[in-house]
Design the sequence.
């Protein structure tokens, strides 16, 4: 049985308990053993993390000890998947650049605040996460992020919609969902999720569920191919 750890906490405005409960249900429906933690101290020791198939981040803002992030980096590098949404993963620890390096992006603004209606445009490609999905519309925060150029973008949204200082620049297709690799590990992120109910939109819920399952499959894949982490561990930069 695959094992998943969901870490919930930080700013309550992102409803971490509700999103965690929803994601736990999705994973249990797929046969996962799921544990939910209200503390970051679950990252204090590396060996328990290496037993996992997936870590789901639902923790907005706050601070995290550097050695905790190094344990996450090593676990994901060894093949444990990492997935999350909205500020619960890409606005978790603003002061920790290693976390941002792992996750692939960092929130910087949401012009117009909550309640902006916008289209999520699915990118045509080979990822099984978006196979068979169509474009859809949501009404929620419209996230502007700084993005790792190495990510594979799965969905985008058009900026600008709401007038703000950034409208003086050219229009851009801002990523809404992406994947990347960290060592042998798979990382998935979607910027949807300001409130739990955005996942009532069927395609939004499907995107999150597919992303978590894809990330969780990376460890088994790495093991099946005999992939090791030695080349990463020998050059790791410690903080």
Sequence:
């Amino acid at each position: 049985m695959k094992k998943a750890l969901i870490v919930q906490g930080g700013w309550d405005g992102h409803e971490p308990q509700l999103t965690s409960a929803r994601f736990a249900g999705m994973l249990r429906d797929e046969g996962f053993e799921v544990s939910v933690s209200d503390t970051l101290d679950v990252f204090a020791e590396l060996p328990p993390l290496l037993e996992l198939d997936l870590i789901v981040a639902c923790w907005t803002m706050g601070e995290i000890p550097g050695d905790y992030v190094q344990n996450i980096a090593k676990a994901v590098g060894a093949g444990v998947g990492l997935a999350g949404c909205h500020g619960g993963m890409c606005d978790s620890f603003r002061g920790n650049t290693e976390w941002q390096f792992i996750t692939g992006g960092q929130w910087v603004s949401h012009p117009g605040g909550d309640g902006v209606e916008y289209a999520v445009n699915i990118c045509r490609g080979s990822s099984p996460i978006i196979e068979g999905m169509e474009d859809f519309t949501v009404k929620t925060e419209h996230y502007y992020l700084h993005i790792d150029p190495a990510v594979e973008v799965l969905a985008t949204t058009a900026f600008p919609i709401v007038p703000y200082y950034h409208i003086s620049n050219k229009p851009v297709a801002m990523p809404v969902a992406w994947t990347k690799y960290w060592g042998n590990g798979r990382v998935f992120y979607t910027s949807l999720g300001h409130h739990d109910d955005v996942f009532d939109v069927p395609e939004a819920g499907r995107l999150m569920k597919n992303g978590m399952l894809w990330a969780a499959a990376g460890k088994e894949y790495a093991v099946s191919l005999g992939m090791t982490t030695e080349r990463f561990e020998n050059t790791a930069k410690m903080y």
The chain has a mean pLDDT of 95. DSSP finds eight helices and eleven strands in the chain.
